[in-house]
Inverse folding.
């Protein structure tokens, strides 16, 4: 199985990093696209070195690398998770714009009817954000706002990050034990 992980420039890069950490311990091939803005956010929000994050992926692509296999519908990959998904990225995907590889791979998922999980991390939301999310949901995307549950009584930030990463993996069809489930 192959999965694409996209990390866009929204706050919450820890979600995408945790997904990569989990996938790196499996036999699932992780393709990674990190936008230029996301690279800056990783430096601002985390203690991770960019080389560590990139090293978690099996395949790494520059956001302008339109010759990457994941830019084509003929390349078989199971789906994509964009975590976090900025409103800029969400709007471009909703509008059918593919000005970078992250947007193109998401477009491939929609046109090929593959799973696409978008984890928007913005608040509050305006009408345009909501309309774009509805448009994408109608097109087949799964909208997973970065809103962790508290029924598991999280004790650390990692607990909250794990709950969202685990939910994203569930939605794309990957069994995991990353978070405490409802009993």
């Amino acid at each position: 199985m192959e999965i694409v992980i996209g990390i866009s420039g929204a706050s919450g890069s820890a979600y995408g990093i945790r997904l990569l950490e989990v996938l790196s311990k499996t036999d699932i091939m992780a393709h990674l696209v990190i936008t230029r803005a996301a690279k800056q956010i990783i430096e601002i929000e985390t203690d991770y070195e960019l080389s560590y994050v990139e090293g978690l992926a099996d395949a790494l692509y520059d956001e302008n690398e339109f010759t990457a296999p994941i830019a084509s519908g003929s390349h078989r990959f199971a789906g994509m998770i964009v975590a976090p998904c900025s409103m800029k990225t969400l709007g471009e995907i909703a509008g059918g714009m593919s000005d970078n590889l992250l947007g193109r791979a998401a477009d491939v998922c929609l046109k090929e009817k593959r799973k696409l999980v978008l984890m928007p991390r913005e608040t509050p939301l305006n009408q345009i954000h909501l309309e774009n999310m509805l448009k994408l949901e109608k097109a087949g995307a799964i909208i997973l706002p970065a809103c962790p549950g508290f029924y598991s009584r999280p004790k650390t930030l990692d607990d909250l990050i794990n709950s969202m990463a685990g939910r994203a993996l569930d939605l794309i069809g990957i069994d995991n034990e990353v978070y405490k489930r409802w009993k």
User: Anything to note?
Assistant: The CA atoms of residues 3 and 78 lie 6 Å apart.
